[in-house]
Amino acid sequence: MLGIGMVGQVAGTVAASVPPFLIPYLHLERGLSLTQAGALAATPLVGTMVSLVLWGVVVDRWGERLAMAGGLAVVAAAMLGSATADGYVALGAWWFVVGVGAASPNSASGRLVVGWFGPERRGTAMGIRQTALPLGMGIGAVLTPTLASSRGLMTVLVAAGVMVAVTAAVCAVAIVDPPREPLDRSTPGGANPYRRRLGLVRIHLASALLVVPQYTVWTFMLVWLIDARGFAAGLAGALVLVAQLLGALGRIGAGWWTDQVASRLRPMRQVAVAAAVTMLALGLLVDTPVAVAVIVVASVVTVVDNGMAFTAVAETAGSHWSGRAMGLQNTGQYLAAAAVPPGIGAVIAGPGYGWAFAIVAIFPVLAVPLIPVLTEQVTEHR
């Protein structure tokens, strides 16, 4: 189930990452401004943001298999539809629907892992599952700019749509929903967790702040390497893939770390401090020879907190609320992430990359005091 959940998340991530990785193509070959290309690339994030809680309801009520297979089918249909779009408005509309479907694996695959693993292994398992996001981004970074330059936009979109369609079929056949305890509203697994624990809201807010540096690096590393550092598209994509693979390993290590210390939130706070330091260093060193190495480090540091927070949310919410809680968790993250391409793109177009990276360091600083370390409880809810 862990492997199938990962495959579904990878497929959804590859599809949703196609528009951001088309920014260099749209900007340098199609003539769109960086702000325009960034706004178009943000449409899948907006679609994901507005549908995460609804997919969480589907997971809680009808199970993980229906949610993941159905969501990926939506992604496949919309991606294939976007290949025939006439104009950028239509293209953005199709990409919005891609984001709606891509929201389903975020809640469904996470719930699949939490439901099948006990708390002593859950952090490591969730860390492995979370590698699907950087792996999907890395695959997208390698394939998208290369295919777009050599074969055109339609080839990229059709290839992504076919890949997701196959994955949806696999999920529909192979996923087995995990067992759940009987619903009892007098127990933590049945009662609304938001009525008794403010800590959930604090985790949501902190995670939304921490996703800003993550998506800044994910969205603009490729175009920075090509536009500001003079890298060829293929070489830049390969470096992004390496960075994403390192980020995947970092997520596994972070999950194992939380299992060893029996805490998700203490490590999360330490990672937030490291993210602030790394982004500030990147802003200060952006024009120096070490900047490429620093941005690779930033691509690792800024992603490892996600699995920690996701696991903490699921454990706190319980088996009958974890889908909705994960949906709310990711809604806040995607709300922040959707503002990154146009917002940071505008800063880059003005003061430049150095200022943009340095300003982003403010967000993890604000997240540190929000992380509810003192009220954390690591409990088992199957």
Structure description:
- The protein is mainly alpha-helical and 382 residues long.
- The chain has one domain (2-177, 190-374): Growth Hormone, Chain: A (Up-down Bundle), CATH 1.20.1250.
- It has 18 helices and no strands.
- Helix 4 runs antiparallel to helix 5 (64-82), helix 13 runs antiparallel to helix 14 (291-301) and helix 13 runs antiparallel to helix 15.
Topology record:
Blueprint: H1 2-21, H2 23-28, H3 34-41, H4 43-62, H5 64-82, H6 88-102, H7 104-116, H8 119-130, H9 132-151, H10 153-174, H11 199-227, H12 233-261, H13 265-285, H14 291-301, H15 305-317, H16 322-349, H17 353-360, H18 362-367
Helix pairs in contact: 1-3, 1-5, 1-6, 1-7, 1-8, 1-9, 1-10, 3-16, 4-5, 4-6, 4-7, 4-16, 5-6, 5-7, 5-10, 7-8, 7-16, 8-12, 8-15, 9-10, 9-12, 11-12, 11-14, 11-15, 11-16, 12-14, 12-15, 13-14, 13-15, 13-17, 15-16, 16-17
Summarize the structure.
With 382 residues, the chain is mostly helical. Helices cover 79% and strands 0% of the residues.
Main features:
382 residues; mainly alpha; Growth Hormone, Chain: A; 18 helices; 79% helix; 0% strand
Supply Rg: 19 Å
Question: What series of H and E elements makes up the topology?
Answer: HHHHHHHHHHHHHHHHHH
Strand content: under 5%
**Terminal Cα span:** 15 Å
Q: List the uncertain runs.
A: none
State the CATH class: Mainly Alpha
